[in-house]
């Protein structure tokens, strides 16, 4: 067993975990996931990702209080549809993109924010671009750009959120606030937990398509409201359940509201928190 120092992604508390060197090196995904339970480092639970060199590549918190809704109709699931993924080195993507970075990218994409990745890993630029194009196919616009350190010119990207690895270099409007990334983090966790590379990328694509379609339905609902009429949580959840045969939780609905406002540019005329709460009883 090998001891590795680790830092909690929530409170920055530090401590040590023990991992089996043999299990890490035999990991089929390239990164070995270690579930760090509450009380080992601090009061939080999180996942640590260790590479084959026994280096902690990322620490990541999923929000276990949020359940992602089941897939809606016409989702891509069968093996035949995964056969065209040979143009993406999925193992390379999973090995090099961190969980935090991917959650940031999803957040920026669904909120229609331009985001720039600055990287010295030019060997994977094409795979990364193909990956992002594939997961946003038939749903959100891909708003991610990638440049090398040498080609980065600040004046050309003044409106972009800037990332270097999992580090946020610029985020003027605090779009990537970790406290607001509950759904995005759960989507990424679902992607990383799937061992089969083709299945994992299809899962990710389906989650984005699902959010896109449900958000469009919320827009449809809003546009059907009478003047000065507001949205009640219970009614919109019932509407989505009837239309898509899907049941969603309030945190996921709030995620959809953000997409409706930021991506589709439609204001959500919500009723008061108290009225919404009473409406769910």
Percentage of β-strand residues? 15-25%
Number of strands: 9
Mean pLDDT: 85
The value of Rg in angstroms is 20 Å
Distance between the termini: 51 Å
Helix vs. strand class: alpha/beta
How many alpha or pi helices? 9
The low-confidence runs, each spanning 5 or more residues with pLDDT under 50, are 277-281
Biggest beta sheet summary:
4 strands, mixed
What would you call the shape? Answer: globular
Secondary-structure element string: EEHEEEHHEHEEEHHHHH
Share of helical residues: 25-40%
Spatial sequence of strands, sheet with the most strands: 7-6-8-9
What topology does this entry show?
Blueprint: E1 2-7, E2 14-19, H1 21-25, E3 31-36, E4 46-51, E5 56-60, H2 90-96, H3 99-110, E6 115-119, H4 125-135, E7 144-148, E8 161-164, E9 167-170, H5 182-193, H6 197-223, H7 233-244, H8 250-262, H9 273-279
Parallel strand pairs: 6-7, 6-8
Antiparallel strand pairs: 1-2, 3-4, 4-5, 8-9
Helix pairs in contact: 3-5, 5-6, 6-7, 6-8
